[in-house]
Each structure stands twice: as structure tokens, then as C-alpha cells.
Design goal:
Blueprint: H1 2-17, H2 22-37, H3 44-52, H4 61-68, H5 86-92, H6 98-107, E1 109-110, E2 117-118, H7 126-136
Antiparallel strand pairs: 1-2
Helix pairs in contact: 4-7, 6-7
Amino acid sequence: MTKRLTIILCVSFLVAGCGGNSKNQKSSTDSVLADSAAGTKTPDSARENSNTISIMTSTDEGAALIVKNDCRNCHKEREKLIGPAFSEIAKRYGHYDIDLLAAKIIKGGSGHWGDASMSPHPSLSITDASVIVKFILKYK
């Protein structure tokens, strides 16, 4: 298990080093989130980008925190595992739910997605949990 985790981390660092200009990626994502918040229609190109987001290839800090923590033990990007897929979470929630979802990651909970409960993550800071949520919402 440790060897597998080491390999995953090494690959993610290598991929992150080849990520390109993250300022342009962030600004385009921010504009998509701003458009969604304003109630405007998301452009087709932004919708396609949400289908190509990958934790393993992203240079986003939220993706790194997901890899670092145990999120992927219960969640996949686009398929239900034990908990809901990140893409399903993004469809249900919006930017206005960041604080709620960050608190839910820290406190844990159950009943929102069926019988499975999410274990609490009390050692995770509210700032890091918010960064994770912001990344997950990019799957919208």
C-alpha cells in the first residue's frame, strides 16, 4: 500500500511539473464559476473541461489535498464508490455551499447520499477543506 501511494504521489508531482501556466487555468475556471453564480449559461467549452478534469493530472491544490487525504478511498471522480462521485456532488451543490461542505468534510455525516456515512476528518483545517470543495465543484 505504501509503495502504491509513493508511486501515485511521484506520478502526480511529475504531471504537476508539466502542468503549464496555472494562472490561465484558474482565471478561466473562476470566470466559469462567476458565470454560474450570475445565472448565465456555462459555455460548451467549459462544460467539456469539467469532463476532462482529473485529480492525477491537475496542478490544483485541491487535487493535491484529495490525493494527500483519504478522499479517494470512498469517492471517485465520475463514478459512485462508497460515497457519491465528485461530479455528482458538483451537480447538487454550488459555490454558495463551500462553507457547508467544508464543515461536512471535517465533521463527517450521513443521510444525504443514502445509508453510507462519511467519516470525520478533524485534523483537516477549514481552509484545506474549502480548497478541496472548490476543486470538487469544478466537476460541474
